Amino acid sequence: MESTLGLEIIEVVEQAALASAKWMGKGEKDTADEVAVEAMRERMNQIHMRGRIVIGEGERDDAPMLYIGEEVGICTREDAKNYCNPDELVEIDIAVDPCEGTNLVAYGQNGSMAVLAISEKGGLFAAPDFYMKKLAAPPAAKNHVDINKTPTQNLQILADCLERSIDELVVIVMDRSRHKDLIAEIRGAGARVRLISDGDVSAAISCAFAGTNVHALMGIGAAPEGVISAAAMRCLGGHFQGQLIYDPEIVKTGLIGESKESNLERLASMGITDPDRVYNAEELANGETVLFAACGITPGTLMQGVRFFHNGARTQSLVISSQSQTARFVDTIHLFDRPKYLELH
After folding, report:
1. What single-letter DSSP state applies at residue 68?
2. What is the topology classification, in CATH, of domain 2-121+288-335?
3. What SS3 class is residue 194?
4. What was the pLDDT predicted at 21?
């Protein structure tokens, strides 16, 4: 899968990032997202594959592109038999977020990126459009920290695993009212808190890389993004756990579903019989091969954002593979026309 799709999925996230970055700072988050979706879908449909969107632009709404269940790739066309040999067909499931952090793009803030994860059919958890309690930590703490422990307990475990003191740890938390007690406990334990407004996929992945000064992600965010984070963390050997949150009273705002009871019914209809189950990275991304790709739209902890110059642009992407056990940072110069010069810095 990596040799077949590795380069092409980089181009998929690059095209989404380039399209969205043109709307950076213009205050139009919906447009920044729409153009990213269109660009990502257009490039996907040029790939020799049969892909199915399992996490995308909408589960219950009428998203016109990259919606849950949409098929993408050359081999989904009506005339696919003219292009695709069934014996060589790459059939995959895809999780996408063409513009993770639409508000970040709209207001020119750091941390937005175009992102996707892929695996063979059935290899990614088809998360409902609910929320998820998340815990991400570095590889050294894998299977030592636990989402069922208190933040204070996990911070002590994390400090022991990393051979640091608690006051040297930095924990990323989404800046939401539901996290008031969590933030207070983290600070009370002696750790430092970095609050973010959006974009917890980047925050989760940053935990796996030394030198980012990010040691954990705690709190509740969107469930689909949790699956994408898990795919990357599985490839990197980092710790990730997620537990679905289906009670609107817990998240307080934005949850699809009018009541706890209706959400439980929805989960049951999807075959999720244990709604309180805690999933690890290997369960959320359980395919034999998992690939993750992201491209910075605005500057972030891991990647530079899109930088435009005369008739061109420069992007930085990250592709992570469970197959080759690699994390590759890809620096690309895109030539739109005949540029007067190439931007090398």
Report:
1. T
2. Fructose-1,6-Bisphosphatase; Chain A, domain 1 (3.30.540)
3. strand
4. 98
